[in-house]
């Protein structure tokens, strides 16, 4: 069964798709490999680190609301989680900051 979905690729992801497709078609005279073929192969062969993916897309406001709604909070665990969240947020921050750091 074929399922058609629309996805948004980053520039880096699209470049990887184009490069792999061109590499697969280079010297291949017996057929043709299109972008869909390449993306399907990439998805099926991918090994994704779920924790890294979750960390990259953690919503800080939602996280804080979740902690605030708990009846009992382990302060040591909370401090550890906040430090991890801060370090992950700091890694993403420079892309939104200007050249002067402002």
Q: What's the gist of this structure?
A:
This protein has helices spanning 11-25, 35-45, 50-56, 60-69, 75-92.
Description of the structure:
The protein contains five helices and no strands. It is mostly helical and 102 residues long. The protein has two domains: 37 residues, no CATH class; 44 residues, no CATH class. Helix 1 crosses helix 2. The C terminus is likely disordered.
Helix/sheet category: mainly alpha
Overall domain count:
2
Global mean pLDDT: 83
Order of SSEs:
HHHHH
* Model regions low in confidence, pLDDT < 50 over at least 5 residues: 94-102
- What percentage of residues falls in helices of 4 or more residues? 55-70%
Q: Which shape, going by the Cα principal axes?
A: elongated
Q: Per DSSP, what share of the residues sits in E-state strands of 2 or more residues?
A: under 5%
Main sheet: strands, sense, barrel: none
Query: Can you count the helices?
Result: 5
Cα gyration radius (Å) = 21 Å
Q: What separation lies between the terminal Cα atoms? A: 51 Å
What is the β-strand count? 0
Fill in the keyword field for this structure.
102 residues; 2 domains; 60% helix; disordered C terminus; mainly alpha; 5 helices
Layout of strands and helices, then pairs:
Layout: H1 11-25, H2 35-45, H3 50-56, H4 60-69, H5 75-92
Helix pairs in contact: 1-2
């Amino acid at each position: 069964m074929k399922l058609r979905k629309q996805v948004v690729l980053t520039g880096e992801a699209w470049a990887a798709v184009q490069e792999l497709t061109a590499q697969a078609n280079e010297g291949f005279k017996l057929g043709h490999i299109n972008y869909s073929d390449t993306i399907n192969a990439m998805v099926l062969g991918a090994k994704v680190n779920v924790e890294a993916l979750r960390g990259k897309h953690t919503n800080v406001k939602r996280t804080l609301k979740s902690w605030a709604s708990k009846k009992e909070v382990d302060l040591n665990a909370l401090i550890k989680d906040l430090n991890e969240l801060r370090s992950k947020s700091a890694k993403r921050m420079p892309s939104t900051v200007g050249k002067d750091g402002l």
